[in-house]
Amino acid sequence: QAGDWREKKVAAFRGHMNRFADEVRKAGLGFGIWMEPERIGPEAPILKERPEWFVPVPPSARVDLEKPAAYAWLRGEIWRLVETYKLAWMKLDFNYECDCDQTGAELSRYSDKWHAMLDDIRKSYPRTFFEGCSSGALRLDLGFLQHVDNHFPSDTVNPVDVLRICQGAFLRLPPGRLSRWAALRSPGPVVPRYTLRTADSPPTILTPTSAGWEPSETVDLDFAMLGAMSGMLGFSGDLAGMPATVRKRIAEHVVFFKRWRRFLAKSVAHLLSPPELMTVRDGWVVFQFQDTASTDSIVFAYRLGLTGQADPAWCLRGLVPGARYRVKHGIDARGKGRIMKGRELMQDGIQAGLPANMGRKFLAAVCVVERM
Question: Is the CB of residue 306 less than 8 Å from the CB of residue 291?
Fold first, then answer.
């Protein structure tokens, strides 16, 4: 019940969620919860006890943060949850449309209070990671990003959907502040690879087609990992149930991400391919993430669909024309790489280096471009 965040004695953990949280921490993980603090459900006890604290937004209500008592109550609820469960992470959701502000302020005073509360809470709990998740009303902008640690852009975790969403988001938002999930499961080698028997084929990897596992679709592991890596990488699904070879490859991607995550966190995004609607599931999506000071870049290239086998050259941006750059392909690139001038990279471009499709719909590659 939104608005009633007291632990139930007759459902879920039956009042013992802290025991579960302790088990999570013993496993070396942080414990977190998902909260929708701004929305109050119609059956929430607090709505009946203090109706004057809330603004009706049928079928729910929102907290009137301009009233000091209501503000203090909501802040206290968030504090209580962080302290009770020793939270390492809290997702702050917002799954309803913004209401019409009867004061004429267009919710500006409300937003100021909400942002001030977030700043107060983050200052009080600097070791807790607060993730924004305003996908219900798509309430996200550069101003809001100043008050949370990152933002989860949409419930869908399908790699193609997320790439299309981020093509739009990167036009106004920094990529390193948007979280991405690699949601993966594997039933083993159940789908034959072209020219191979099923038993000799690589393990099948499944990912959701939207926000849930029904229906799912097969996905290339590198495509799923590189799709989630062009932002703030996270995981869902069943990693422990993956075959050892798959877990090893995932670990290699994680090593690459850890090496570059500080770079990605402060980078700007150049869209080397034009944005498309989410319904377009063929063509190319290519991002160039760049450190504007050094001009170093990481290029993520994604080929969608089965149409066309061409591996075009993508012209980079923002480089120093006369400078020399070392170009390396892949997460496990070895050797010295290829040395190219900035002018050459911007005029002639570089190829992703992806193989022919051979019946595989979605493939991805990464290239690191470092100034010498």
Answer: no
- Collapsing DSSP to helix, strand or coil, 59 comes out as coil
Rounded to an integer, what distance in angstroms lies between the CA atom of residue 96 and that of residue 117?
20
Which pLDDT belongs to residue 15? 87
CB 231 within 8 A of CB 176: yes
Q: Torsion over CA of 302, 230, 160 and 288, rounded to 10 degrees?
A: -40
Position 285, amino acid: V
Beta strands in the chain (DSSP E): 32-35, 39-40, 54-57, 60-63, 89-93, 129-133, 150-151, 179-188, 204-208, 216-218, 232-237, 268-271, 283-290, 297-304, 313-314, 324-329, 338-341, 350-351, 363-371
Mean of pLDDT over the chain:
91
**pLDDT beneath 70, residues of the chain:** 136-138, 307-309, 356-359
Query: What's residue 8's pLDDT?
Result: 85
- Rounded-to-10 torsion of CA 256, 193, 213, 29: -30
- Say what the pLDDT of residue 329 is: 94
